[in-house]
Structure formats: C-alpha cells, structure tokens
Amino acid sequence: MKQKVRIAAGQGFWGDLPDAPVRQVEGGPIDYLMLDYLAEVTMSIMQKQRSRDPSAGYAKDFVPLMNQILPACVERNIRVTANAGGVNVEGCADAVREVARGLGLAGKLRIGLVTGDDIMAKLDEFLDRGIELRNMDTGVALSTVRDRIQSANVYLGAAPMVAALNRGAQIVITGRATDTGLTLAPLMHEFGWAPDDWNKIAAGTIAGHIIECGAQCSGGNCQYEWRNIPNLASVGFPIVEAAPDGTFVITKHEGTGGWVIIPSVKEQLVYEMGDPHSYITPDCVADFTTVRLEYEGRDRVRVFGIEGRPATNTLKVSISYSAGYKAVGTLAYSWPEAYDKAQAADRILRERLDRLGLKFDQILTEFVGANATHGPLAGAPSPDLPEVQLRVGVRSENRTAVERFTKEIAPLVLTGPPGVTGFAGGRPKVEEIVAYWPALIPKEEINPVVDIIDV
Fold it and tell me: How far is residue 170's CA from residue 247's CA, in Å, rounded to a whole number?
C-alpha cells in the first residue's frame, strides 16, 4: 500500500483553462489526474448534441487533451478519472482509444467505461411501476412534464470507478458520476478502504469536494485579500496529497500562481454545501462540521478529523426538460441621468408590450451598473452614474410572443429616451429554456456497468 497518493485537479467545469491539465502533469509528481466536466445543464446540452449527431454527446475537448498528455501519463504511470463521457461514454472512449493508437500506445493502455447512469429509456417503466420521481423541491410528480424531458441521469458514486481501477484501467471515463467520486475512487482503490469505513469515505469525499472546482480553492474566485493573490495569470490548480488514515493536504505545484491558504479552502468547503452536518453523496453522508484545518507549510493546508455516516438508500437523479422560451435584450444609456433614462425605457417597453396584448410568464428587468448584482440591497443608485445598461428578459411557453418581444428592443434607440450608446449584440435571440428537475430513486433500481477496453 502506498503511504501517499497525489490526486491533481485538472478541470473544474467544461470550458475551464485548457492548459491546466497539461501543467498538472508536467509541473511535478502526481499519481492521478481528476477531470470534472459535468454540470446539470451540461447533460441537456450533450443530449441535444447527440440527437443531432449520434457520435457526439461528450466533452469533445477531452480527446485532444488526451492526445497531448497521454504519452507522459503512460510513461509516469499517471492515471486519469474523468466524467467527460457525458451521455455518450462509449463514443468518448472510442475516440480516446483511436488517439492512443495514433500515439503508438497500442498494448500499453486500458480504458475503463462506467455506464448505467442514463435512465431516459427506463423512465416510462419506472413511472408505470409507481416510481414517481417527484421533484425534490416542489413534490410534483415527473409525469406532469414527461413529454418534455430531454435528459435523465443518475449520480453514480465511486464504487464503479473503483471497480474499473481494480481491473487495471489507467483512464476511467464516466457519464454522470458525482464530482467527489472522481477523487474518492482512486483513494479507495489505492488504500483499500472498505465502502462502509464511513470516516475515511467521508474524508475522501471532502477531499474531492475541495478540489472539484479546480483553482477555486487555490486562489481563483477567492474573496480573501484578493488583491494580494499572486500571479493569477498562472494560477496553480490544487492537488490532494492523501494518507491511508484519511488525512490529507491540499497543495499545488511549486512555482505556480495563486495560493493555498485556510481561507481559500474554507471558501470552497462552503460551496454548494447545504446542511453542513449532512453532505449527502451516493457513497456516504459527510459531516462538514468535523473538518479541521491547519497549516503544514507554505501552500499546504492539512485537513483532518473528518467524520461520516452511512450512505442513504437512494440516488439523486438529474433531469432536464423543456420549459418554454426566453429572450434577453440590452441597451446602454449614458450620463447624464443614465439610470432615469433606463427606467423610462423600461416603462415604455412594457407599455408597448401590453398594447400588443403580449403575455409572458415573467418579465425581468435589471439595471446593470445600478442594481443588477445586489437588487434591492444596492440602495438608491447615484444620480451621477456614468452609464447604465438596461437588461430585459422575458420567458413564455408561447414562442411567438417571445419572438415579438425581440422586435421591440431596437426601436427604443430612436423612439425612447436619449443617450443610447450601444445596441449590444443586435436583436435578441430566442432560446429554449431547459429547466432542472431533481429527484430521488432507490439504489436497487440502478445497475452501473463497468467495461474495460484495451488499446
């Protein structure tokens, strides 16, 4: 058994810094590279892509990245866990296999595939058997939006990834696995942690949570003394250095920008945390109130004392569905009286929409530069604001109404208040609204599948 395992975060979301994984591989010793690509809306985007092209539906930028770093990963025995598979894990794995063969790595690489998270084809069966998949926020049954569903994926935990690693996979590609599982799985594999050793599983889960958003725990998006954070242009992504007892250190490669300090780690800990006593994942229930932090040196924060409880008997399901249409238009008004001009333009626009008999589920107006960020908490805007951007959004089940709204923004330039300095982006674009539906499903209804392919 290793006495230390280094897991480096390379991506915090689909579209993160392209060179971050490369710098993690080349910047110093690591054992694993963890790449987190998926968010709730990402799954619906990928599902749409695959509906247009059966070979699509995964994070396409993962493939050229593998082309760039696979030789070094194979040479240095760096293993990769990634949820880049989206809704087409097999297609992603096939593309990576072709890249590996093109690099001359045939016979030198095993790829693990984890599927079983996509339950679109089983939704009607579940509903017929009384598994209602009620919305966790509203309690409404899924049947009310069944005809508008675009994607439905279960959050799988670390167990199937552990199985793939146990079978020798050097790259593990999943669909909708939990962000934390991408880090927890290597620790369970390397240290032989039992799935019911709740304190250690919770520790691995929190380790994964701290690094799942990439540089957000190593200086990026950090409120604490943000002006003093060094060299964010070359920010270092975080690395977990874990021990068999469940303690670990958050650090980064030497010579990189940003910083790993207790405040930056704390900021990431509270990100999407919910109830600090009960952070629920498929693998355990972690108690964030037990987390202890201390410095172990420069850019080294030791994390210890973590406690966990048994996992629940359900899995979370991420469902997306069509919820009408939206459009957002903007106009910028200049000094003097910029805020008053923008307010007047909003009133005029709304009167014209009423006169046309257009009905919307919602009309939302924001005054960027005055109160768009803080809303009512912003207080009364200064009368001397140099410029204010009027931003108006509408949504409706009626596409025709939204399309007509898009034609009412530009006329304000010559038929409204003075001082318009820009019609940003031209006529607003009508977009489909993809809404999120969280639900729970009994664990026994889901059967993850692990496949291994040799390059």
Answer: 25
> What one-letter code names the amino acid at 72?
A
Instruction: Give me the residue label for tokens 């894990």.
Output: 89
Instruction: Give the count of domains, the chain.
Output: 2
Q: Which domain does 303 fall in, by range?
A: 5-117+155-312
Three-state secondary-structure class, residue 315: strand
Residue 421: pLDDT band with limits 50, 70, 90: confident
Q: Note if the pTM is more than 0.90.
A: yes
Asked if 389 and 300 sit in the same domain, the reply is no
The two structure tokens encoding residue 2: 């290793």
pLDDT tens for residues 207-262? 999 999 999 999 999 999 999 999 999 999 999 999 999 999 999 999 999 999 99
452 Rama class: left (phi>0) / alpha (psi -120 to 50) / beta: beta
Q: Which 8-state DSSP code applies to residue 9?
A: E
Q: What is the pLDDT of residues 128-166, one digit of tens each?
A: 999 999 999 999 999 999 999 988 999 999 999 999 999
Give the integer Cα–Cα distance in Å for 426 and 331. Answer: 10
Beta bridge partners of 440: 316
Residue 397: CATH number of its domain? 3.30.70.120
Query: How many whole angstroms separate alpha carbon 388 and alpha carbon 342?
Result: 7
On whether residue 453 sits in a domain, the answer given is no
DSSP labels for 427-455?
SPPPEEEEEEEEEEEEGGG---EEEEEE-
Report helix, strand or coil for 129.
coil
HEC string of 374-413 equals CHHHHCCCCCCCCEEEEEEEEEECCHHHHHHHHCCCCCHH
| The predicted structure's pLDDT at residue 86 | 93
Q: Inform me whether the pLDDT recorded for 40 exceeds 80.
A: no
Closest CA to 177 of 32, 36, 354, 7: 36
Structure tokens at 171: 């790259």
What count of other Cβ atoms lies within 10 Å of the Cβ of residue 306? 25
Asked if the structure places residue 166 within a domain, the reply is yes
Residue 41 has pLDDT above 80, yes or no: no
- In this structure, the answer to whether residues 289 and 341 fall within a common structural domain is no
